[in-house]
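Reopening closed ticket. The problem is back. First fold of the pair:
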Amino acid sequence: MKKILPFVLVLLLVSCGGGEEKWVLMSSPVDADLYDVWGLENGDVWIVGAEGKVLFYDGEILGALESGLSATLRGVSFASENTGWVCGNFGVIARYSDGTWVQDTSFGFTRTLHDIYFFDDNTGWAVGSGGNIYYYNGAFWKEFSSPVNNTLKCLHFCDKNHGWAAGDEGVIIKYSDGTWVEIASPADRTINGVWAVSPDEAWFVGVDGLIIHWKDGSFEVLPSQTTLDLYGVWMKNSNDGWICGENGALYHYEDGEWVAKASPTAKNLYGINKGWACGEEGTVIRIE
């Protein structure tokens, strides 16, 4: 059973936006920066950040879980309700199972791991500094051959055979047929977020308002709508998605265009998933 310490009732403090979807500011139990969020189909939401902070939303209450970790956590991924993983600074990687977080101390990497992704309880990937890529086979983590040395800051798969990672200086790599291959990038700016929609489509976001669309084998850099840094992208499907970024920036993909939307916060938003976003100084927002 999950233990939430302390219990904090969710308060809707501010609501913004028009139309059918509105983002609302949640009452957060922490004031540390929060870097990533993962939502499950059953409504559970996990959020991680600085100082080993882990937040959990069970459909009613947003509270802080005792993780036993002190390093900054930068990525979180759950393949099922009871099993998930986090990664972060100093090569920290830990697994959640049966209500407890346990750090994998056999993991030999000591530099920052920026992102992590799991398909099921026993198959996952992690990426980080120096272009390092790691694969979990159900028993242990092993280093996987990487085509780049650039820090990889984001990772996403649409299925077990098709995925993307991206990072510093606009580097982009693609996974298919058991191999990671560098793809010539259309930009030299750091990419902070990626979402693989399908084997033939993906979105990338980065610094200075960078938005890149991969479709049917080619990239398109969209005309910049902002100079703000963009940190995360979440696509519901090919026609509907959200981007979050600096100073609370929110963009909605509708009718083939990214449209700026009102935000209930001016804090940086670093992670977005399943209608939730998190960021600076414990900021948590969600679609009402």
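Second fold of the pair, where the issue appears:
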Amino acid sequence: MKKETRIEKRLDDLGVLPEPDPDKPIRPTIKGEQKLHHVMDHKMMIPILAIIGILVIAIGIYSYMNTSEEVYIEAAAGPAPPSRPDMTEAGAGGTMARPGYCTQYVSQGEYGSEDDCFAALAEKNTNPDYCLGIVDTQMKDDCLNWIAEEFLDIDTCFRLGLAADIDECLFNIALDTSDMEICFEMTSGDGEFSENHCLFKIAEKDRDPEVCGFMVEAEEPYTQERCVSAAKAAGVRT
């Protein structure tokens, strides 16, 4: 009787039911069912973990191949050549106009000299700040004067080195724009590029004798009388 009980216990542990005894009620084997589920769970986890492992390895290989390709392309292409300077680079008056800024472009044959480089950049970008990088004084003033007169910028006139050059620059812009207010910025009262001559030429150009009335202490040959005569001779503006 004891041996039979042990067999039943072992079968019960394994989840195997003995042949039902018609005289005994069948009792549930909960412990055996739990073991069976535990074994099934482990068997299902194996393929899931395998799939996850394969995905991780595949992602790692893909990342390595892309990185290697990028490094190879960069090494094969070599460093990018320096871009030609233009106004997209900040600090024209400081960084761009510093001595030696145009050296690399001269060595590449872009310009004959650094002064030529700065002059060309000033003209191309309509920016007088580039003129400040020019070493030759006369060339620098020519650069500033060209920018000022080409774009009617009186502020650039005042960046010229000599007072006579400033007056000439202002004179030409005043005449081009018929703006007698610019004449009053001139420092010379008489002479070719003077305040009175400036007013004289605007009156003559615009055929407006009233402009002559703003001339002060005018001396020959740019007197008020001559100014009025010149304006009328050109034909009174209607």
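Update: turned out to be a display glitch only; the data is intact. The chain has three domains: 28-59, 86-151, 162-238. Residues 68-94 have pLDDT under 50 and may be disordered. Please close again.
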